[in-house]
Amino acid sequence: MSDGSTCMSVDPGVCRFQTKIKAEYQDGAIRYHIQTDCPHASKLEGELDPRLSPFEALKMPFAENPIYITCGKVLIHSACPIPSALIKCAEVVAGLGLKRNVRFDFEC
């Protein structure tokens, strides 16, 4: 794992609250910078643990994952894609996953 950063844009769909997530990996910790139009997601940056390790960010099961736990306290819509986006950013910035786009499409 090497120090670095990655950025992701999140289009959440019907709420239209665009979000940009920047994840930085430094000294074994992932730190997030979140720009969003969402009044609820805007609280996440201050609520997420700034010492979050990549392994904690990817923790399973979902009910024990600190990102999902924090998002569950702050966000008001269970289908919000931001928690998953935060985890994907952590995976990529820590060198544990590939940078590939993720989509949900109602077109099948």
In short:
By secondary structure, the chain is an alpha+beta fold.
List the topology elements.
Elements: E1 4-10, E2 19-26, E3 29-36, H1 44-47, H2 54-57, H3 66-74, H4 82-93
**Residues in helices, as a percent range:** 25-40%
Number of helices: 4
Return residue spans where pLDDT drops below 50 for at least 5 consecutive residues.
none
Structural class: alpha+beta
Q: Largest beta sheet, briefly? A: 3 strands, antiparallel
Strand content: 15-25%
Q: What is the CATH class designation?
A: Alpha Beta
Global Rg? 13 Å
Order of helices and strands: EEEHHHH
User: At CATH's second level, what is the architecture?
Assistant: Alpha-Beta Complex
Q: Can you list the strand order of the major beta sheet? A: 1-2-3
Cα distance, first to last residue?
Answer: 38 Å
CATH topology: Sufe protein. Chain: A
Tell the overall outline.
globular
Q: How many domain regions?
A: 1
What's the rounded overall pLDDT mean?
95
The total strand number stands at: 3
Report what the structure shows.
With 108 residues, the chain is of the alpha+beta class. It has a single domain, classed as Sufe protein. Chain: A (Alpha-Beta Complex). It is 27% helix and 21% strand. The protein contains four helices and three strands, in the order βββαααα. The chain has helices at 44-47, 54-57, 66-74, 82-93; strands at 4-10, 19-26, 29-36. A three-stranded antiparallel beta sheet has the order 1-2-3, with helices on one face. The longest helix is centred in the C-terminal third of the chain and has 12 residues, at 82-93. The radius of gyration is 13 Å and the shape is globular. The model has no long low-confidence stretch (mean pLDDT 95).
